[in-house]
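Example for tutorial group B:
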C-alpha cells in the first residue's frame, strides 16, 4: 500500500508538472500577439493560490506523509506566478486593474491562512485548518475553467480551451485522487476527485467541438471590424466630397479665366 501510495504521488508530480507547463502554448500566443485576446486569467491566479495552500499543507510541520504534495505545488506556484505576471503585462488596462486586485486578494488570503495556522493553531487543528483551506481552493481552481467551458458551449469552439490543459487536468486530478484515497487523506482525495470529474467533462466538450476551432468565436471580431469598416466608409465619403468640391472650384476658375484667354 505504501509503495502504491508513493508511486501515485510520483505520477501526480509528473502529471501536475505537465499541467503547469501546458499553458506555455497559450502564453506564447499571448506574447506573440501582445494581447490576452479572449483567454481568461482567472484559472492561473486560482491555480497559484491552490499551489501555495497545497504546498503549505504538505509541509511536515502541518501534515504527515505529504512531502510530495509540497514539492510539486511549490514548483507550480513559481510557474503560475510567471503566467500571472505575463497576463498582467499584456491585458487591457481595465482587465489589468481587476487582475492585480485579484492577485492581491489571493496573496492576502494565503498570508492569512499561513499566519493563523502557524501562530494560533498547533498539531491536529493546524492540519485540519490548512487542509480545509487547501481543499476549498483546490475545488475553486478546478472549477475556474467553467467560464471557458461555458464559452465553448456558447461558441461551439474549443479555440480558447487548449486540449493538453484539459488532458492534464484530468490526469492530475485522477492521480492525486487515488493518492489521497491510499493515504486516507480526504483533504487531498475530495478536491482532486472533483478535478478528475471536471477534467473528464472538458475532454468530452473538446471531442464534441474539436473540429470547430474557429466557429462562432470569430463572430466576436466582426463587431469591431464592422465599426472600423463603417468608419472607413465615412472617411472615404468625406474624401470624395472634398474631391468634388476641389474639382468644382477648378471648373469655376477655368470658366472665369477662359474669356481672357480668348482675347
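The residue assignment follows.
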Amino acid at each position: 500500500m505504501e509503495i502504491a501510495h508513493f508511486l501515485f504521488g510520483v505520477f501526480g508530480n509528473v502529471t501536475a508538472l505537465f499541467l503547469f507547463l501546458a499553458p506555455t502554448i497559450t502564453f506564447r500566443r499571448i506574447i506573440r500577439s501582445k494581447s490576452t485576446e479572449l483567454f481568461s486569467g482567472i484559472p492561473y491566479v486560482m491555480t497559484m493560490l491552490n499551489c501555495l495552500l497545497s504546498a503549505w499543507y504538505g509541509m511536515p510541520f502541518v501534515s504527515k506523509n505529504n512531502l510530495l504534495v509540497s514539492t510539486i505545488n511549490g514548483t507550480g506556484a513559481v510557474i503560475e506566478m510567471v503566467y500571472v505576471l505575463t497576463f498582467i503585462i499584456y491585458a487591457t488596462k481595465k482587465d489589468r486593474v481587476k487582475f492585480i486586485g485579484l492577485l492581491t486578494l489571493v496573496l492576502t488570503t494565503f498570508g492569512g491562512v499561513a499566519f493563523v495556522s502557524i501562530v494560533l493553531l498547533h498539531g491536529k487543528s493546524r492540519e485540519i485548518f490548512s487542509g480545509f483551506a487547501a481543499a476549498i481552493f483546490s475545488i475553486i481552481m478546478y472549477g475556474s475553467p467553467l467560464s471557458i467551458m461555458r464559452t465553448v458551449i456558447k461558441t461551439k469552439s474549443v479555440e480558447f480551451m487548449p486540449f493538453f490543459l484539459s488532458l492534464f487536468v484530468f490526469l492530475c486530478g485522477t492521480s492525486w485522487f487515488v493518492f489521497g484515497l491510499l493515504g486516507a487523506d480526504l483533504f487531498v482525495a475530495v478536491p482532486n476527485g472533483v478535478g478528475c470529474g471536471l477534467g473528464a467533462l472538458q475532454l468530452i466538450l473538446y471531442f464534441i467541438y474539436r473540429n470547430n476551432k474557429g466557429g462562432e468565436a470569430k463572430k466576436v471580431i466582426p463587431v469591431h471590424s464592422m465599426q472600423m469598416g463603417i468608419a472607413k466608409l465615412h472617411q472615404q465619403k468625406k474624401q470624395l466630397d472634398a474631391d468634388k468640391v476641389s474639382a468644382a472650384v477648378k471648373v469655376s476658375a477655368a470658366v472665369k479665366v477662359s474669356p481672357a484667354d480668348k482675347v
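Residues 216-238, 257-263 have pLDDT under 50 and may be disordered. Compare this with the pattern of hydrophobic and polar residues in the output above.
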